[in-house]
Amino acid sequence: MIEQKKKVVVVGGGITGLAAAFYMQKAARERNLPIEVVLIEANNRLGGKIQTVRRDGFVVERGPDSFLIRKKSMEIFAEDLGIEGELVRNATGQAHILVNGQLQPIPPGSVMGIPTKMGPFLGSGLFSLSGKLRAAGDLFLPRSGIEGDQSLGHFFRRRFGREMVENLIEPLLSGVYAGDIDQMSLQSTYPQFYQVEKKHRSLILGMKKTTPKQVPQKDGHGASKQGAFHSFRNGLETIVEAAEQQLEPGTVKKGIRIESISKQGDQTLLELNNGETVLADAVIVTTGHMAASQLFASHGLLEGLKEIQTTSVATVALAFPADAVVQDKEGTGFLVSRNGNYSITACTWVHRKWPTTTPEGKILLRAFVGRIGEEAIVDLPDDEIERIVLEDLGKILTIKGKPDFSVITRFKEDRPQYRVGHRERVDAARAELQKEFPNVKLAGASYNGVGLPDCIDQGKAAVEEVLGELFTN
């Protein structure tokens, strides 16, 4: 007798959903399991925040532009899709912080802002003498007595003082979340620092002991050529295209929303906006937390997820002829201290960091605007955002004339804020579902990490959890 197939529905076609669907089908083939996978995406395209524009020889990322090589899951995904040959590393170069109207290099030996070499730190123009002396107090301060969660701002100010936090640590650590360091959860964003303090007391001494010594690889001119990030030669959307192509025919339903979700015996019934219904043995919800909360609102579940705030951001890519921009600083870009009177929060010199993105004789800049408390700029018209960004960049670089073209992308109420207590909120939501909808799992950027590898890890973990429940004797 042919065994009845188990139907697994993946809700959301961003990187988490794509990974979940792909690895569920991969497990079914390799373990000979009777599984049918359906991926439902409300938009007419897959990939979520991953969006690549290919224009006039440029490769322009609207959303994320890379991922950390040391987090292996994205690279493994590329290998499993057979596109690892398309991976490229970023070109290394000096990164800067914009402080008091000046681009100051991040001191060599800094690990996420923590100095492991005192010489470059003491010689840095980022801090006053009193700021340096206060930061050096970390060498002598005792461990914190706080056992539970706390804000990044509270944790780092206690160890290093205000100046180092505002001029270096905050721009480095809060950027990916577009968050407020005084509200961001230490345990949910950078728990490694809590562990370093717990084990070594001093963060400076602890990071020096635990950071592997790097032997830079050199090119023919003796310059370092190996970066810490990967992307794809033709843009990050390469992995989205490959994943969609390799999902089994009939897997993906695009442009379709789930109207309601209910229990039917041991299964879950999904009603779609096209009039169809799907009876699922397991559901992996990879949408943002607000969409997940709305999906279960009629059952009075996941109300706590609404406490996870979001913020709006925008990216502004500007293409120029090479002679239109004069850069007197070497490097690949800069972050902006909140103390400055600037609307931009960061700028990548894309043509330097990712040479494969930009044609010969051209320059590509990518600026970022919007963060918690400063979202209004995201709602302005494109031409106004471009004007503001060019005005800010004109204070730092010499720019002649208008760009050849610009690509402005808004992510409205899209960036989840991992505030103090985030882990408890997520655990409570999952516990609610486990009790009322035990075959529904949550995964994605709203929960256990916003980076692309973190999202893939969550998708794969949900797959293994579902398989364990569906096929346990």
UniProtKB/TrEMBL annotation:
Q: Which residues cross the membrane?
A: 7-24
Q: Which Gene3D superfamilies does the protein's record reference? A: FAD/NAD(P)-binding domain, protoporphyrinogen ix oxidase, domain 3, Protoporphyrinogen oxidase, mitochondrial, domain 2
User: By its UniProt entry, which SUPFAM superfamilies does this protein fall under?
Assistant: FAD-linked reductases, C-terminal domain (SSF54373), FAD/NAD(P)-binding domain (SSF51905)
Q: Name one GO molecular function term.
A: oxygen-dependent protoporphyrinogen oxidase activity
**Gene designation per UniProt:** hemY
Query: Which co-factor is required?
Result: FAD
Write out the function statement from the record. Involved in coproporphyrin-dependent heme b biosynthesis. Catalyzes the oxidation of coproporphyrinogen III to coproporphyrin III.
Q: What is this protein called?
A: Coproporphyrinogen III oxidase
* PANTHER family (alphabetical): PROTOPORPHYRINOGEN OXIDASE
InterPro entries recorded:
Amino_oxidase, FAD/NAD-bd_sf, Protoporphyrinogen_oxidase, Zeta_carotene_desat/Oxidored
Asked if the keyword Membrane belongs to this entry, the reply reads yes
* UniProt keyword terms in alphabetical order: Cytoplasm, FAD, Flavoprotein, Heme biosynthesis, Membrane, Oxidoreductase, Transmembrane, Transmembrane helix
Q: Which reaction does it catalyse?
A: coproporphyrinogen III + 3 O2 = coproporphyrin III + 3 H2O2
Q: Family, per the entry? A: Belongs to the protoporphyrinogen/coproporphyrinogen oxidase family. Coproporphyrinogen III oxidase subfamily.
